[in-house]
Amino acid sequence: MSSADQPVGAPEELQLLAAPAEGVPDVVTDARALAEAADAVRAGRGPIGLDAERASGYRYGQHAYLVQLRRSGSGTWLIDPVACPDLTLVDAAIGESEWILHAATQDLVCLAEVGLHPRQLFDTELGGRLAGRPRVGLGAMVEHYLGYRLAKEHSAVDWSSRPLPEPWLRYAALDVEVLGDLRDAVAEDLEGQGKLGWAREEFDHLLAFTGPEPRVDPWRRTSGVHKVRTRRGLAIVRELWRDRDEIAQHRDVSPGRVLPDAAIAELALEHQRDTSPPRSVGSKEPRLARSIRRNQDVILEAIATALNLPEQELPPLSLPHTGPPPPRSWADRDPVAAARLARARELIAAVSEELVVPVENLLTPELLRRYLWDGPAAPSTEEVARDLRAAGAREWQVTITAPLIALACDEHPVERAG
User: Fold this and answer.
1) Is residue 265 within 8 Å of 222, Cβ to Cβ?
2) For 171, 247, 365, 412, which has the most beta carbons within 10 A of its beta carbon?
3) What is the b/e burial string over 135-147, where b = at least 16 CB atoms within 10 angstroms of the residue's CB?
4) 164-210 pLDDT, tens per residue?
5) pLDDT of 207-234, one tens digit each?
6) Does the domain made of 327-411 have the CATH classification 1.10.150.80?
7) 229: closest CA among 126, 317, 157, 107?
8) Residue of 94, 73, 83, 76 lying closest to 20 (CA atoms)
9) What is the pTM of this model?
10) 165: number of CA atoms within 13 Å, CB side?
């Protein structure tokens, strides 16, 4: 490990941040305390650290069950968005001030749900990636840049529980207490490497983030569905997934707590060739058997629906492909495009190593594949740059990768009739 990769102290010497410097604040649960929080935030100075705790794996969706804020001169505030679901008062108090987030895409959507919208932000995780850090979790970043150790044992607890235990609140307060110093250290590192402008472009791009694109047929993401090889079996998966999702949403619990993916896949495999609906279903695996037994009536109805569907209403074995084919098939389908892709990857990987920036941050692999499969026959650097911008690439990405892509195309020109 080089000195640049060494944290302030060796791991055994790192001081554990066990408690917030100012103690654990009371949780804001009413309008009076919320107004007090907004006034304090407005009176503070500089950027404001924000975080949100969800109940992934416990509740339906990705809603916030605790919002943490800290600003110099304002202190730390822990807000219960269940008791106070409208935080527009706090949003107005923050105004144009910079947000500090770690892994912004995880929190922006649930913060927007309660009325919090950034005008500018700094993502310490993304900044760490651009700075070349091999580990960018909050704990690892704090160790490297600040020389402290964060306890992370409460990261996966059920934050929808009430009342929230004091150890959980201590953990939540510490997560925002370190963000200000971490932001400054990461910014200094990026500036020293000449990358702070790149980071600013990425952070500005995040301001428009509203969540991942909705999936077509999200039920196809069920774990184990790849083992189901018949359209009738896929219909069973689809009906079970839909019914489970409806129940989970109604109960406000994680779908996996209603019926695990493994149970859905097992039931589809077991009954995909049945000629009549089963009278009962089960499993030899005790955990799955319990879930199936609890939902016996719903499961039987879903399987019956799938088995009784006419052939033309069964889902296809796979969805129509809308983008470039998988790269492994390029050599057979278009050897020139395959050669371009291989060369472009090689050139970008070399620059990635030189700049110490992950390849996927220089340019998303999907954008590269789409361009090289659908792009013009012999593009100039300017043409590549124009098309990359139109596809959403940031200017710093365009500046670095457009000449490399043009070079790869020049080395492997396409011969087209016309």
Assistant:
1) yes
2) 171
3) ebbbbbbbbbbbe
4) 999 999 999 999 999 999 999 999 999 999 999 999 999 999 999 99
5) 999 998 888 999 999 999 999 999 999 9
6) yes
7) 317
8) 76
9) 0.91
10) 6
Q: Which residues of 90-121 are buried (b: 16+ CB within 10 A; e: fewer)?
A: bbebbeebbbbbbbbeebbbbbbbbbbebeeb
Residue with tokens 């919002």: 67
Q: CATH 3.40.190.10: does it fit domain 218-313?
A: no
- Residue 325 CB neighbour total at 10 angstroms: 14
pLDDT tens digits, residue range 14-49?
Answer: 889 889 999 999 999 999 999 999 999 999 999 999
Q: What is the CATH number of domain 3-206?
A: 3.30.420.10
Residue 124 vs residues 128, 136, 351, 372: alpha-carbon distances, Å: 6, 8, 23, 32
Dihedrals φ, ψ of 410, to 5°? -70, -35
Three-class secondary structure of residue 69 per DSSP: strand
- Across the range 72-92, mean pLDDT stands at 98
- Domain residue spans in the chain? 3-206, 218-313, 327-411
Contact 62, 112 (CB under 8 A): no
